[in-house]
């Protein structure tokens, strides 16, 4: 097994890319979807089940883990992989985004951010240096630079100064990360919806020579059309030979549209979170299992799906356990959703390899256009 981090671009079809990231903890097939394991667990899923859906890599949240149970404690217990029983690659975010969305009494300076925990009010600081140290203690394979996710909408001057701060923090992140063979630090492009700022950001990051790059500041309420507008040019500003990670995306059609535009990696809580609230994603669009129309339906969620929820259970059962508040409801729907998301990724990887991405995409949209099967 390799001892270093590397990315190989294997094929392209239009702007869509097929590739492979090698790490000492295993290979990541790209385009890749990363399930989110916020608090050292993908909620409602055993790690071996997450793997069975086809996931090569998980995402962990620095903000949550530093507050509870604490990065030092996880390090003492052997690191995040051993702690949560996931031996394959893990990517951790820098904590910055969640400080801004979850913490209380935030104060941001050139140095970093001080804040109070949303759990117990305790005071903490995150800086590029402390974020690198926490992610090192967690032992993640892909570490994200500490940045400020520019809010949306942002006036151009605000987006410009926010991006410039993130670029200074990217350099401090790189210096603090140091040389860690087998681990990779990704820089994060900012610049909101302004093309020249995205270009400036890409140039600043590229001069720092990161092994991978993220496209940040999207999926923050701008809507799919505005996001795709940025993705029409932003990925191509980043080096061809490095993986590109679009943070926090998305719905199935967002994911397909992002891959079509040259994105290699994505993460989102949507499949797991929706699984716990009774929403299933299928080839034929979203299905709300709460709906009374499923109460007597003996058919599976999706007759073509090979996940346990679809192979062994009826819509009527899934409806019943959701209504009854049974835990298996969240377990089965989360499994199905993660399986479906990984099927999309697998389908796109095969299509890019075969040079048939456009046809695959047409079929993907046609099936969704049909809508759910008629009620019994
Ligand atoms: Zn299924």
UniProtKB/TrEMBL annotation:
Substrate binds at residues 93-97, 147, 190, 217. Signal peptide: none annotated. Homodimer. Within each dimer, one monomer is responsible for RNA recognition and catalysis, while the other monomer binds to the replacement base PreQ1. Belongs to the queuine tRNA-ribosyltransferase family. Its cofactor is Zn(2+). This is Queuine tRNA-ribosyltransferase. Zn(2+) binds at residues 305, 307, 310, 336. SUPFAM superfamilies: tRNA-guanine transglycosylase (SSF51713). GO terms for molecular function: glycosyltransferase activity. It catalyses: 7-aminomethyl-7-carbaguanine + guanosine(34) in tRNA = 7-aminomethyl-7-carbaguanosine(34) in tRNA + guanine. Keywords: Glycosyltransferase, Metal-binding, Queuosine biosynthesis, Transferase, tRNA processing, Zinc. Binds 1 zinc ion per subunit. It is an enzyme of class 2 (transferase). Its EC number is 2.4.2.29. Transmembrane segments: none annotated. Catalyzes the base-exchange of a guanine (G) residue with the queuine precursor 7-aminomethyl-7-deazaguanine (PreQ1) at position 34 (anticodon wobble position) in tRNAs with GU(N) anticodons (tRNA-Asp, -Asn, -His and -Tyr). Catalysis occurs through a double-displacement mechanism. The nucleophile active site attacks the C1' of nucleotide 34 to detach the guanine base from the RNA, forming a covalent enzyme-RNA intermediate. The proton acceptor active site deprotonates the incoming PreQ1, allowing a nucleophilic attack on the C1' of the ribose to form the product. Residues 248-254 are annotated as: RNA binding. Pathway: tRNA modification; tRNA-queuosine biosynthesis. The active site is at 93 (proton acceptor), 267 (nucleophile). Pfam families: TGT. Residues 15-368 form the tRNA-guanine(15) transglycosylase-like domain. The lineage of its organism: Bacteria, Pseudomonadati, Pseudomonadota, Alphaproteobacteria, Rhodobacterales.
């Amino acid at each position: 097994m390799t001892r270093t981090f590397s990315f190989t671009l294997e094929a392209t079809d239009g702007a869509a890319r097929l590739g492979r990231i090698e790490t000492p903890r295993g290979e990541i097939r790209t385009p890749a979807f990363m399930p989110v394991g916020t608090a050292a667990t993908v909620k409602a899923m055993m790690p071996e089940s997450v793997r069975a859906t086809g996931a090569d890599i998980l995402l962990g949240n620095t903000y949550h883990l530093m507050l509870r149970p604490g990065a030092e404690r996880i390090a003492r217990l052997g690191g995040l992989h051993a702690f949560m029983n996931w031996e394959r690659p893990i990517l951790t975010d820098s904590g910055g985004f969640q400080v801004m969305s979850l913490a209380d009494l935030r104060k941001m300076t050139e140095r970093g951010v001080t804040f109070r925990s949303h759990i117990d009010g305790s005071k903490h600081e995150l800086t590029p240096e402390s974020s690198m140290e926490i992610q090192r203690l967690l032992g993640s394979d892909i570490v994200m630079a500490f940045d400020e996710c520019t809010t949306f909408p942002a006036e151009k001057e605000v987006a410009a100064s926010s991006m410039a701060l993130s670029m200074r923090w990217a350099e401090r992140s790189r210096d603090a990360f140091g040389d860690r063979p087998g681990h990779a630090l990704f820089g994060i492009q900012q610049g909101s919806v302004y093309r020249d700022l995205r270009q400036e950001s890409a140039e600043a990051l590229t001069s720092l020579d990161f092994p991978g790059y993220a496209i940040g500041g999207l999926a923050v309420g701008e809507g799919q059309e505005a996001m795709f507008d940025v993705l029409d040019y932003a990925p191509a500003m980043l080096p061809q030979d490095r993986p590109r990670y679009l943070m926090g995306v998305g719905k199935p059609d967002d994911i397909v549209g992002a891959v079509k535009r040259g994105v290699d990696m994505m993460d989102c809580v949507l499949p797991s979170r929706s699984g716990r609230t009774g929403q299933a994603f299928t080839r034929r669009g979203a299905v709300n299992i709460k709906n009374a129309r499923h109460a007597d339906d003996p058919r599976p969620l999706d007759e073509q799906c090979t996940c346990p929820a679809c192979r062994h259970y009826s819509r009527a059962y899934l409806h019943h356990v959701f209504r009854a508040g049974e835990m298996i409801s969240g377990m089965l729907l989360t499994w199905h959703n993660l399986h479906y998301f990984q099927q999309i990724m697998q389908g796109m990887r095969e299509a890019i390899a075969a040079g048939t991405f456009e046809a695959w995409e047409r079929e993907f949209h046609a099936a969704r256009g049909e809508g759910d099967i008629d009620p019994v």
